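Q: What structure does this chain adopt?
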Amino acid sequence: MEKLFIKYMVSLRCKLMVKEELTKLGFHYVIVELGMVEILENITPEQRDQFSKNLLKLGLELLETKKSILIEKIKNVITEMIQYSDELPKVNYSDYISEKLNYDYTYLANIFSEVKGITIQQYIIIHKIERVKELILYDELSLSEISHKLHYSSPAHLSNQFKKVTGLTPSFYKKMKRKRDENLENM
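A:
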């Protein structure tokens, strides 16, 4: 049995594409998760190379170094944490990441900063704001509900962080979306 780690594998569609590639190459997978697959067979260097080339054509990348694998695991935990934030208990991010990956948070934070050039906290903020944008565009939740869902201390805190990252207020961002929609309808 062998575990392989894949960069940019962030959606159900990616998982389906990876399953298809594994099947084409005659591998039997046990687990296909975001960023990781586990196959029954031991993979030869030639098979690894072919799988890597096939993944590149799909916009995915087979990871080789321990650091890059760990960075990808951190990113996947953060993505999961933010996408499913309403289903998770409200915990300190550092504790959650450390617990999920079974590493000391300081170690993870140092490697992440060294490789990515930003802190884990900055990465989390960027992802949370992307999630906020998505939820604003869905137009199903109020800013207060979005704030609660993503574990912000208050709607004002969310608004301040949104403005720092995007340069816009959430309400202006929403107005821009409405304006775009109106322009498209009037074409």
